[in-house]
Design brief:
Largest sheet: 6 strands, antiparallel
Helix content: 10-25%
CATH architecture: Roll
Distance between the termini: 37 Å
Strand order of the largest sheet: 1-2-4-5-6-3
Number of helices: 2
Radius of gyration: 15 Å
CATH topology: Thiol Ester Dehydrase, Chain A
């Protein structure tokens, strides 16, 4: 069962990230406790393109992984049916099997997918994939945990 799209206004309520590190523009599919599909429109206006690389702009792989982690956090928060407070943060606890397979450039639309593999003792494990035009750009297993911060 698919629920409606999550727009940027809801994403801003769910994630503590803001410019320039908010890397999810819209959620296009969501299945509670199962999977999520979101998108990131990659534009030449991204601040990281000034230095990565000036002669051939390429989205850094670590930022693609961050976009996947933000997507996974949205899956968890929405599945729990709660909007986290400003004191709730999702941290990486592990990244396994990360493979970069395609360069992501300005003008690309990055499709971000995450599915929950397991949730145990406050640690969530996700299978993730980011693609452009159906072609895999990066895939990885991410492990994250939610924590309250002071």
């Amino acid at each position: 069962m698919t629920t409606p799209v999550m727009d940027i206004h809801k994403i801003l309520k769910m994630l503590p990230h803001r410019y320039p590190i908010l890397l999810v523009d819209r959620v296009i599919e969501f299945e509670k406790d199962v999977r999520i599909k979101a998108l990131k429109n990659v534009t030449i206006n991204e601040p990281f393109f000034m230095g990565h690389f000036p002669s051939r702009p390429v989205m850094p792989g670590v930022l693609m992984l961050e976009a996947l982690a933000q997507t996974a956090a949205l899956l968890s928060f929405e599945s729990l049916g709660e909007e986290p407070g400003e004191d709730t943060v999702v941290y990486f606890v592990g990244i396994d099997g990360a493979r970069f397979k395609r360069v992501v450039e300005p003008g690309d639309q990055l499709i971000l997918e995450a599915s929950i593999e397991r949730a145990r003792a406050g640690i969530y494990k996700y299978k993730t994939r980011a693609s452009v035009g159906g072609e895999t750009a990066v895939e990885a297993e991410l492990m994250c945990t939610m924590r309250k911060v002071a």
